Amino acid sequence: MKKKVIVFSAPSGAGKSTILGEVLKRIPDLEFSISACNRKPRGEEIDGREYYFLSTEDFQKKISENEFLEWEEIYEGRFYGTLKKEFERIWDLGKTVISDLDVMGGMNIKNKFSENALTIFIKPPSLEILERRLTARGTDSKEDIARRIAKAEKEISFANHFDHIVVNDDLGRVVEETIGIVNKFLEKC
User: Fold this and answer.
1) Which of 7, 44, 55, 146 has the most CB atoms around it within 10 Å of its CB?
2) What is the reported pLDDT for 97?
């Protein structure tokens, strides 16, 4: 079995988690890769379910010991990354890795796995619609939303580096399109 990887990237609020959830429900050969971070759990998050929550010291130790496939300092002092052992865990199950990474992480994984990796960028129909979605969530301050929109502009500028760009303007259509893209990749490999 080839060690395959599927990466989803998108600006916050583009609908990536919803689409990813539907893909996981409908394609049983996929297993979600849990990322690591150095922040504290929020709300009802559990270590090993949403993220592997590491101390800053543990995260930096894993960096120095080359335990990450990719990692980044997303915000000052805030690290996120993909542990090699997480991909190995999924491949040992005989499944294909599916992950949710930021744009740079997605491009790094594509560079490492080339034709054995599929990258999909979920794009909002517009920044205005993205801002409305983020505001409707009711979870972020106006300042946080402004910061997310600025980050989204930068992320969208990298969309053309991905294998596929899917514009999330109709959730049902986008889910079907994305499932088609994933199935075609799985059949090809």
Assistant:
1) 7
2) 98
Q: Tokens representing 57?
A: 């010291």
Contact residues for 119 (Cβ-Cβ < 8 A; gap 6+): 6, 7, 9, 106, 107, 109, 110, 161, 162, 163, 164
Which positions of the chain have pLDDT values less than 70?
1, 189
- Tell me the three state secondary structure of residue 69: strand
C-beta pairs of 180-186 under 8 Å, 24+ apart in sequence: 181/118, 181/120, 182/6, 182/23, 182/27, 182/30, 182/118, 182/120, 183/27, 185/4, 185/6, 185/118, 186/4, 186/27, 186/29, 186/96
Q: What is the pTM of this model?
A: 0.91
CATH tag, 5-188: 3.40.50.300
Distance (Å, whole) CA 177 – CA 98 = 16
Give the residue extent of every domain in the chain.
5-188
Closest CA to 60 of 88, 75, 82, 38: 38
What per-residue confidence (pLDDT) applies to 148?
86
Residue pointed to by tokens 């990354």: 81
Q: What are phi and psi of 105, to 5 degrees?
A: -60, -45
pLDDT of residue 138: 79
